[in-house]
């Protein structure tokens, strides 16, 4: 009897799981699908609720307009560089620090943690920060995307927690017995065991760089250094401006108006596609038992 | 795991350490010099970029005077804080801000955990991958576009949600305009957008579970519900606690852009929050000092919350930020 | 192996960091030497300047504007432009506070009077240099009000204004669908009650004749109480003359500054709007739709119009070229048939034809004479005309007899408004369109002027007693701050209540409490301040 009810439960569980998965999928996927069809449909039809499942009044005006902007290619190039260089530096600074802060025998740990956490809350404001960057000659250079704030305390804490809970402390002690130093242990044991963590933190940093427009907005004046997001934001806001500037001087033109939303949705696709490609590569590190496999391997 | 164990082990580690002395930063420095090397770059970066500009906090207590430099203006003490607390909208702002972030935490915090647990249970690889990729996509939608989409999809006249509500008999509810629906729409759309993204961290934590644990749970006759309860959840508890402490530190920080874009004159009684108010007073004339004071006020309350929750957590779970 | 790699990478990184510092300063040094060499060379060589232009997003790159190249050449300058289309407010704060600014700023109110007060010493007082710019002097002489706009309370001039002459006396025109009226055999409404009846008929019958009696939206507006295209213009029916849209409610009546938000006549308007709303005559999404949707709906579907009565800048912009002919521009309504007082409208002439601070110079500029030469060039009326409409050649035709005409867009799909914004700095630029210049306007502006005709009599307002000269008044920094804080609170309260009362009613019972709240929020304090400045201004 126990056996059958257990099977029943199992089937029940699977059914609920599939139903839930399907529901989540539909809720998330429909609006995404909507973005795609809205990016090629007549904007007037979209905003008056005529486009639900099938694109209508199809035109590629939005994409044409986006890719017509020659700055976009410079933007892609810059963003890709900032993203990869920035993420590399982020990991280089964050992971060793997180490892150190996960070691309970490290006596300055509490103090340093507190020091770091304070920065999550208190900051001097934009103007002193700008003056500092200017003093360091970082403004209007590529380094402003890479060096400042390369340690995100939030991610540092996540990484520390992960090291704490997934690296049994016996592991280091055993290694230390064999004369293994901290640096060596970190590189040879801790990092290989933490592929999932590195993927997550790396992904978080990566996407942070990819989506960042504020740094460029404040610190960059040279058009050649602008990242993709600034350029896309320019294109996007170009169409939003109609909202407040209307009328005075015939600001809003019917011609531009009709396609404004196409650009809006097109921008999302143009900016997201490249980074989507990365995800499947990282995804495999979240699979069950990756860590154990690497211990044995 | 416990620090006790490490202390015991230390006796066996190196000849350089005297056993009798209590370990302090100084006398462990030589032993831990490699740790110091590893954390040194991070300390420098944080000190330089985060702490150096902190002198700017003074601005909250001073008049901003351009000709005298950032910190040269006349000292005003708590003037700007008083101005904020006495201001006409103060109670409304505090209430709205608090309610929105509380709702965000209560609903938004558990959602990615549940999603991660669900994803972790799916055994079909293809299905899991598709679902996982889909749920993380909305994170990339910019706020402007998200709010634009909300306007289109939730419109009572022409939106798909409007149609669906009409078809099940709920009529005349404008989700975008009612003071009752603003917070739900805000919070749920936030969950929709970021839940998948935030679940990644839990998925990573779940991936560190030794598959042998599941096997032995199965052998012990545990159902899948039970293996979630006794294997999965304990594995992510540390991450949950730490993230929870951090989220409590954001009790008075609501985002700005999304709320601002979602505001309209009908929902304004519940949607005017501190950040949007600061924007509105700041945009007309550069009220740097006033804005700085409101910001600092916010920060201090957030920090108190963080401190309290961190202390509670340390007491009861032995987990804490520092 | 891995260890070595890590060490190697760390070393690289440290080098990179060091290099970053160096290369950063190198490029700066280069920049400086660049501008210095310009400085030192003879008068014939071009002087290098830097400038920021805050332009409309549609506007093409400045480098492609022929007239600008010519103007720079004529002034003997070569300006390196940084063109900004978005987020200027955010950029500006840090830029000014750090003192890191270019020689020139161009754009509509790019640097505000509040900025001048706050960042003392950062901007050049142009009154000392005006003698070097005869064209600016000419504008000040023939249009003395432009000098008033430019002059700060302390007598200094930091930013120069624009004068664009041709714009109508009001931004808002009132449109009704004449075809619907004809279809239903109705007369053009002249009072609020008649409007109600007409809108009711629009709703109940199939006014657009497409067979569906329920797809007509009788009335639509952007969703605020005041400002352009919003229902506050109906206060004209009760004798209130709004100024520049009165987006915060302030107006002047018989020499007294008032705010309609606490005026009984506004209460009456709200009651009327609530009545319309209750009858389902106002677009149910009026307080939630965004601009795109607001515009799209009025553009209907093909030949089928959807909106009966609304406000806008010009019919072709509001309804699209295809539907525009269906709509007629209306005269202002009377509040009731027996109303004998004056009927007024929103008087926006000043805000449409003048602008503050369209060009500003840095006090740190090393080449003030050269910058002034360039400014002088822009205020040459023939150049100014091109600032507004685009270069002579592609955008403006030189008729050869001293007269000029604005040309239609070369791309026939584009409307003239968009064409103007694409081709030049347009309304954002610094300009002086002298009254003497003989320029024939394009089709769009002529349409605006024709459609303004029905408003003409309502706009014959008493400039001495009924118009708030907001454009010409300079507040002190302290007053400015007080007022903007108060206005944030007052408009917050007003917006909320207006929307609530229109959709749900309740104005009669809540009015008194609301008036008290408004006073508490600072409304009367602001009126006092404004009255003081108004009296001061009028006595001059």
Automatic annotation (TrEMBL), chain A:
Cross-referenced Gene3D superfamilies: MetI-like
GO cellular component: plasma membrane
CDD domains membership: TM_PBP2 (cd06261)
InterPro entries: MetI-like (IPR000515), MetI-like_sf (IPR035906)
Claim: Cell membrane is one of the keywords in the record: yes
PROSITE patterns the UniProt entry points to: ABC_TM1
Residue span, ABC transmembrane type-1 domain: 76-286
Keywords from the UniProt entry: Cell membrane, Membrane, Transmembrane, Transmembrane helix, Transport
First-listed, main subcellular location of the protein, grouped into a coarse class: membrane
Transmembrane segments: 12-40, 80-99, 111-130, 142-163, 185-207, 263-282
The keyword Membrane is annotated on this UniProt entry: yes
Membrane-related topology note: Multi-pass membrane protein
Pfam families per record: BPD_transp_1 (PF00528)
Signal sequence segment: none
A GO BP annotation: transmembrane transport
Subcellular location: Cell membrane
Family per record: Belongs to the binding-protein-dependent transport system permease family.
Protein name in UniProt: Carbohydrate ABC transporter permease
TrEMBL record, chain C:
Keyword terms of this UniProt record: Cell membrane, Lipoprotein, Membrane, Palmitate, Signal
Xref: SUPFAM superfamilies: Periplasmic binding protein-like II (SSF53850)
Pfam families: SBP_bac_1
Membrane-spanning ranges: none
Leader sequence residues: 1-20
Annotated InterPro entries: Bact_solute-bd_prot1 (IPR050490), SBP (IPR006059)
Protein name listed in UniProt: Extracellular solute-binding protein
Species this protein is from: Cohnella luojiensis
